[in-house]
Every structure is written in C-alpha cells, then in structure tokens.
Amino acid sequence: MTNKPKVSVVTPVYNAEKYIAETMDSIINQSFHDFEFILVDDCSTDGTAEIIERYAKDDERIKLYRNEKNLGIAGNRNKGISFATGKYIVWADADDVSVKERLQLQYDFMESHPKVGICGGFLQFFDYTGDKGIRKYAPDDTSLRKTIFRYSPVAQPSAIIRKSCLDEAGKYDLAWPPAEDLDMSFRIGSKYEFANIQQILIRYREHPNSATFKKLKKMELSTIAIRNKYSRVSGYTMTFADKVYNCLQYISIFIVPPKFKIWLFSKIRNS
After folding, report:
1. Are 70 and 45 within 8 A, CB to CB?
2. Residue 261 in 3-state DSSP?
3. Residue 137 is part of which domain span?
C-alpha cells in the first residue's frame, strides 16, 4: 500500500458489538487492497471498541478513533472524513456487509467517470430470517435527477464519494439528522453527476435498532424540508407531481403507522 491509500473506508460506530466483526470482515477481505479503514467510535458503552482494537493489531490498515463525547451520526461522519487521506471516501455502516468486489467495482467506475461525484449501487436487504428484497437505483445522472424529489439518488450505505467533492461541499450539516446524507447528495449533485453501479454492493441489515425504525418521523420531516430547500437550487427541478408526492408524504407522517409505511415503501422501491 502507498503512503496515501486510494480509498478511505469510513465507518461511524456506536454500540455495534453484535455486528461490527462481520462488517469489518467484509471490508478486510475485499478483492481491492489499497485502502485505509477508519472507524470512529462515538462513545460506545458496549464492547465495540475492544473488538475493533483486536482487529487493528493484525491489520495496519485499520485505524480506530474514539470520541471524547457523543457527536451523533452527522458529527461522527465529519470526524471520520477529517482523518481520511484517500482519493475516495467509501461509507461502510457498522451493521452492513459489503460484497467482496465492492471497492474494486466502485474505484474502477469512479476512475473512468470523472464527472461523477457520488456513486452507489443496489442493496440486498436481510434480517435474522434470511434475505429479503433488493432495492435498485437508476444508473445515470439524468434518470436520478428526475426522481430526486421522491427518492434518494444514491443509498448512503453503498456510497463512494470523491474526497475533493466533500472538501468543496463542506461538512455534513448537523441540522438535518438523520437525513444529513440526502442534504450532502444534493450539494454534491449541484456540481457533479450521480451514478449507481447496477449490481448488489451492500447486504443491508434490517433490525429494530436501526435509525430507520427508531427515527422515521424525524427522518421524513427532515427529508421533506431538504427537498423543498433544493427545489430552488439551479440544476434541480421539482415538478407538480413531486410537490403532490411530498405533500402526501407529509400528511402520512401523522396518520400512517410507521411499520406499515416502511413495509409499503420497501415494496414500492424494491419491486
């Protein structure tokens, strides 16, 4: 590995002792090797840090940083980026599993598509019962902009981002948790293109403790506010249909049970 790795894999971590070993194994055993693996522990109260430390003893690419106070998701993302030295940032959530070819596929794609600022891929959902649906994302910038006011153009757990884009766009905004990733995508997309590799890159773990289940109302309110914010920014066009969609989504926040909404949204997006 060169002094500066080509890729910085960044994993914000908080109380993930049940899953972190599987997540780390999926990164360490990638077919692509020129990376550093940065894990930022946000004051975990379980054995997460100890598990990471054991891995770090056997692999010099692994770097553990421990926060003195809890920063939350957005703050922890910013902390991880500040330590990164690679040309690209790859997000790896602490409870997900990356497929073996993920880094190679994404690195090669970004190298051959210089106009793309952020690139994702498909998600394979799973839980303790086994595999569930596959969520697919459109491949090209034009298609993704047409639906950006309804769906995120790139799944953050599968994202690779040019470090230069993040340097230009600035830090993740602490005002938008847990939807700070969508705000960042909009910022990057105002100057660069979106893209998605048409393959499964992430096995996405569903469990009751995930942010989606615990903070759905807050996430939806932030998401709608972010969409409205960028509807007035050059490069994006919110159609009348988009406005109706967001209006209906806002109303549903207060009348539709969260579990049913998550199930329905998954059926629509994963079909």
Report:
1. no
2. helix
3. 7-206
pLDDT tens-digit series, residues 182-212? 999 999 999 999 999 999 999 999 876 555 5
Q: Which residue has 């940083």 as its token pair?
A: 65
- What is the predicted pLDDT for the residue at 74? 93
Q: Which two tokens stand for residue 126?
A: 């799973």
In 3D, which of 235, 111, 228, 90 has the Cα closest to residue 166? 90
Q: Is residue 19 part of a domain?
A: yes
User: Which among 7, 193, 168, 196 is positioned nearest to 117, based on CA atoms?
Assistant: 193
Number of domains in the chain: 1
Question: CA–CA separation, 4 vs 55, rounded Å?
Answer: 21
**What's the distance, CA 12 to chain centroid?**
11
Name residue, tokens 């830090």. Answer: 171
Mean pLDDT for back-to-back runs of 10 residues, the chain (271 residues): 86 96 98 98 96 97 96 94 97 97 98 98 93 94 97 97 96 92 97 98 82 74 96 95 96 84 64 53
Instruction: Determine if residue 184 is left, alpha or beta; phi over 0 gives left, psi from -120 to 50 gives alpha, anything else beta.
Output: alpha
Q: What is the CATH number of the domain that holds 121?
A: 3.90.550.10
Q: What are the structure tokens assigned to 67, written together? A: 């926060």
List of residues 6+ apart from 142 with CB closer than 8 A: none
C-beta separation of 66 from 41 below 8 A: yes
Question: Is residue 12 situated within a structural domain?
Answer: yes
* Residues 84 and 12: beta-carbon distance below 8 Å: no
